Amino acid sequence: MCWCSSSSTRCQPMSRSGPSMNPSSDTPAISTIFRMAAHGTPRERPTAGAARGAEILAGVKTEDAKAEDANTVLFHTDGRTGVVTLNRPRAINALTHPMVLRIDETLAAWAADPAVHQVLIRGAGERGLCAGGDIRAIHDDARAGKTASADFWRDEYRLNARIARYPKPYVALMDGITMGGGVGVSAHGSVRIVTERSRVAMPETGIGFVPDVGGTHLLGRAPGGLGTHLALTGTAVGAADALLCGLADHFVPADRLPELTAALAGAPAHEVLPRYAATPAPGELAGRRGWIDHCYAADTVEEIVERLLGQGEPAAKEAAEVILAKSPTALKVTLAALRRAAALDTLEQVLAQEFRVSCNALTSPDLVEGIRAQVVDKDRDPRWSPATLAEVGGADVERFFAPLGESRELRLP
To answer: For a pLDDT cut of 90, what percent of the chain falls above it?
Structure first.
C-alpha cells in the first residue's frame, strides 16, 4: 500500500497496512519503559540528588500485545527527506520487534532510492524519542528459557549497524527521553540533535543487564572516564553533557524542531543546521572531569568505588552509592565490556560481543531479579546473586563473553 500525505510527499510502499495521517495516541503504555524517576522529567532541571537509589528504572502499565498494529512506526517522504516516526507516545515510543524489522526494511529501500537524500527519525508525542524496549518480555522470556529476546536483539543490532553505516545523512531528533534502544536508533547516526529536554542514558546495570545496542562502543570512546561513569551509574545526561560525551552533535531548542524538520524537506542537513543550532545551557560533567577521570581509570569496580568514596566530593560519593545499588555481576561485566569494546576496531565487532553478553545474560539470575524488582513487583529491592562485588570472580565475568556456537553468533558484514 502507499501513503500520500501532501503534494510534497511521495508515496511510500508499506510492508503492512498503511499508517494513518496522524500519530496514534497509543494504548496505555507497554510493559517496561526506562523512566527518569531520579533525574526529573525531560522538562525539569536535574536536581543535586539525581541518580540516588535504584529508581532509574521503573515500569508502566502493560499494554496488550494483541493491540499492536502497523501504526506503531510511520514512514513517509517529505521532499528529499525520508521520515521515520516512532509512534507509541504513551509508551515513550518503546521499540518492539516488528518496529525494528519495519524500520530496517524501509531504511534499506530508502538507501537505494535516489529521490531520498537523507533520513530523519523522530518520536511522536512530547515525552521522548524512545525509552528503550519491552524488558518485561525479556523477563518472561528468560524465565521460560526461550529465544525470543535473542531473536529481537539479533535484528535490533543489525539495525544499529545499518544506521551507523548508512550511505545518506541520518538525522536523529533526540528530544526528551532517549534511552537504551532509543540510543541505538539515534546515537549511531551521522547527525544527532539534542534539545533542552533531552535525557540520554544507558541504564541497564539497574536491572542486572549490560549496555547493548552499541552502547559499549559509544561509551567506550567517550572522553576520559565519562563513558565508564555513565555506564556503571546509568546516569541520564542533558544536552551539554551528551555533546561532551560524544553521544550527540548539535543542540537545537525544542521549539525550533518543527521549523528544522520543515526546512529539511528542501535542503540537506549540513545546510539547514547552522540556522537552528545553538549553545546549550552548561552541563554537570565538564566540571567533574577531574575526579571522574581519576576514579574511573581504576582497573576494577571495587577500586573505582574506593576512589569515589575517597574524593571528598558529594557528587563522587553519590556516584559510589548509586553504583553499589546495582547488580555486582552486571557492573563487572559492564566494565569488562567497555574495556574490550574500546580495543575493538569496528562497531560490528562490538555488536557481536554485545550479542554474546546479552544472550548469556538470559541465564543470569540477576536479569530476572532486576526486572522483577524494578518492574514486576516494583519493590525496588533486588536481591542480587552474588550479592557483593567481592563475590563476583573472574570466571563469573568471563562466562558472559563465552562463544554461543557457530550457528548462534551474530554475523554482520
So the answer is: 77
Task: Look up cell 529481537; give the residue.
Answer: 152
Buried b (16+ CB within 10 A) or exposed e, 197-233: bbbbbbbbbbbbbbbbbbbbbbbbebebbbbbbbbbb
Which pLDDT score, from 0 to 100, does residue 48 have?
34
- 181, 206, 238, 283: which is the annotated catalytic residue? 181
> Which residue in the list 79, 133, 206, 283 is annotated as catalytic?
133
> Which is the catalytic residue, given 204, 249, 318, 366?
204
Query: Which position among 134, 175, 196, 212 bears the catalytic label?
Result: 212
Is 212 noted as a catalytic residue in this protein?
A: yes
The C-alpha atoms of residue 346 and residue 113 are separated, in whole angstroms, by 27
pTM of this prediction? 0.85
Amino acid at 57: L
How many beta carbons lie within 10 A of that of residue 165, not counting itself?
16
Q: Which region holds residue 93: left if phi is over 0, alpha if psi is between -120 and 50, else beta?
A: left
- What does pLDDT average to over the chain? 86
What cell numbers appear for 25 in the block? 495516541
φ, ψ of residue 63 in degrees (nearest 5):
-95, 145
Contact 358, 133 (CB under 8 A): no
pLDDT of residue 261 exceeding 70? yes
Q: How confident is the model at residue 404 (pLDDT cuts 50, 70, 90)?
A: very high
With cut-offs at 50, 70 and 90, classify the pLDDT of residue 3.
very low
pLDDT at 140: 86
Note if 204 is an active site residue: yes
Told to judge if 290 belongs to the known catalytic residues of this protein, a careful annotator would answer no
